[in-house]
Every structure is written in C-alpha cells, then in structure tokens.
C-alpha cells in the first residue's frame, strides 16, 4: 500500500502516477492498454463444458470476464475463449486465470 505523498497520485484502479519536478511517470507495470468492452464470449473448459459470459475489458495481453459465481476454478486454470459478437466464426483463443475477483476472472492470453 502506498502512503499519501505530495509526489504520488493514485488516479484509478491499481495505477500509481509519480509526479517529480514536473515530470509524470506512470508506474503501472502493464505492457498493454486496457479498453472497456461489453461483448459476449464463449468460455470453454474440459470439465465445465461451455458457458456464455460478458467481457468487462480487454487488452493485447488478456481479458476480464464477468462470470459471477458461474466459474469456480483457481488461478492457473486454462480455458479456451471464443468471441460471439463477430460476423462469422471467431478463432479460438487460449487463456489462463491470473486473478479472481467477486464478479469475475482476469485471464491472460497465451499460445501453445
């Protein structure tokens, strides 16, 4: 937890912006920018089968899915995703749970 300081400002979420001598430095470690997205996704798992869920946001590295209590798997569980709001059949994408929250799961994309 960061202590309040005239040199640090927490703007939103987990991002911490450092302000020193007029310079602004974003201390967020993310490699990709998140974009809000409300879209239907098919979430597939060998034990669970498939369910339809909504996205909250997406980036080049992953996606946050609003699953509520539909998904009860630990961090590290692998899934296959498919966008459902596209014209034509969307490709299958592999992803792994990296964070659990009360309203959903954060998944990181990966390739085999």
Automatic annotation (TrEMBL):
Pfam families: PilZ. GO terms for molecular function: cyclic-di-GMP binding. InterPro entries: PilZ_domain. Residues 28-109 form the PilZ domain. Signal peptide: none annotated. Gene3D superfamilies: predicted glycosyltransferase like domains. This is PilZ domain-containing protein. It comes from Thiogranum longum. The lineage of its organism: Bacteria, Pseudomonadati, Pseudomonadota, Gammaproteobacteria, Chromatiales.
């Amino acid at each position: 937890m960061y202590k309040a300081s005239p040199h640090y400002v927490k703007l939103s979420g987990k991002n911490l912006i450092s302000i020193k001598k007029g310079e602004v430095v974003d201390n967020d470690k993310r490699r990709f920018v998140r974009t809000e997205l409300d879209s239907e996704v098919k979430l597939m798992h060998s034990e669970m089968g498939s369910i339809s869920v909504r996205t909250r946001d997406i980036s080049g590295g992953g996606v946050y899915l609003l699953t509520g209590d539909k998904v009860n798997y630990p961090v590290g569980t692998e899934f296959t995703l498919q966008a459902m709001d596209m014209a034509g059949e969307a490709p299958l994408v592999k992803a792994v749970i990296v964070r659990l929250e009360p309203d959903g799961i954060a998944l990181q994309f990966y390739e085999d």
